[in-house]
Amino acid sequence: MKIAIDAMGGDHAPKAQVAGALAAVRSFEDVTITLLGDELKIAPHLSAHDRIDVVHTPSVITNDETPTQAIRKKKDSSMMLAVKAVREKRADACISAGNTGALMAAGLMQIGRINGLERPALAPMLPTLDGEGFLLLDVGANVDTRAEHLFQYGVMGDVYMRQVKNRKQPKVGLLNVGSEEGKGNDLSKQAYERMKSADFEFIGNIEARDVMNGGCDVVVCDGFSGNILLKSIEGTAESLFSIIKSELTSTMMNKMAAGILKPSFKNIKEKLSYSHYGGAGLFGLKAPVVKAHGSSDHTAVFHAIRQARQMVSEGVADVIATDLQRQRSE
């Protein structure tokens, strides 16, 4: 299995990408990795390995560039070459921690959508109190959506959780302002009616305050609402740990207590960390494209590779295509 990685995207590139790739080839004997990027910057971090090769390019798409202009002007960039490798069947999947909009645009233009899919969705795994996590889609690929789009998100989320996360019968919920049927705006009401007849376990509406309780495996929403929820969860977690750290270092007694409780706080932080959940899959494309978090460290890159590997080995794109076709014909 071949995975192409944009080695220059993200805050800690290329060190994190190289370290994550080395960890992956040591853990997965069936994985071969191509790192796309500036060879002079990659080399100091890379130990020779027969299943890692480097394709040199000095061109990089930065986060402040307009996505459509960037992918047209920088066709030789590390991100574009990674996506191109998938299009040309030289790689089975690609990963980037770079410009999200550019990666989505490149994926759509170069790899293309699954037949019958109206809109792709950007979908990260987020933490739950039980440590299992839930899939949230969409978080920004589409701000304006229709009920059919949300229904298709449900299909894709159900497939991913069955094929990759081994959840036998994933519970799919619709993000809303209340849990009762009939709540929400016109889109929510139409999506609810559409999803009631779906061939997956639709549990109805779910409120934002309940998504981390573990009662739902897949949360479906439009990209505007999903991005707000994602940023709210990330911001709350960061603020909470900042408050705890400030409080526990405020007095000598608190510092002594912090020393005793340090292992527990470490476990809590790991449960809330995105790094162990992989990246956000761009669901709906004909091959796996994974958007790693911009601040990904080597652990996050490793888990993004693990995620891409599972998506390839389980044929997630093909299963999504089959399920969409089946549910359209029913």
Automatic annotation (TrEMBL):
It catalyses: a fatty acyl-[ACP] + phosphate = an acyl phosphate + holo-[ACP]. Its EC number is 2.3.1.274. Keywords: Acyltransferase, Cytoplasm, Lipid biosynthesis, Lipid metabolism, Phospholipid biosynthesis, Phospholipid metabolism, Transferase. The keyword Plastid does not apply. It comes from the Bacteria. GO terms for cellular component: cytoplasm. Pfam families: FA_synthesis. Pathway: Lipid metabolism; phospholipid metabolism. It is found in: Cytoplasm. Its main location: cytoplasm. GO terms for biological process: fatty acid biosynthetic process; phospholipid biosynthetic process. Signal peptide: none annotated. Gene3D superfamilies: Isopropylmalate Dehydrogenase (3.40.718.10). Belongs to the PlsX family. This is Phosphate acyltransferase. It comes from Geomicrobium halophilum.
